[in-house]
Amino acid sequence: MIEGQVSVAPLIAAFGLIIGLAMIAVLVSQKANTTNIIQALASGGGSLIGAAVKPVTG
Predict the structure, then answer these.
(1) What string of DSSP letters covers 4-57?
(2) Backbone angles phi, psi at 7, to 5 degrees
(3) Which residues contact 7 (CB under 8 A, 6 or more apart)?
(4) In angstroms, rounded to a whole number, what is the distance separating the alpha carbons of residues 37 and 53?
(5) pLDDT tens-digit profile of 14-50?
């Protein structure tokens, strides 16, 4: 790194850590609907994979 430049990598890492902690806090909250959130994410992931391979398979 050139002298006088500031690396953004630590800032990005800190931001990612804050977002990760916030996500965990939401998922473990007593009012969270964790089961439905996980099911929705899994369903969305399956749809994305299906859409991605459809041009290749059919």
Answers:
(1) T---SHHHHHHHHHHHHHHHHHHHHSTT--HHHHHHHHHHHHHHHHHHHHHHHH
(2) -80, 135
(3) 1
(4) 25
(5) 999 998 888 888 777 777 777 777 777 777 777 766 7
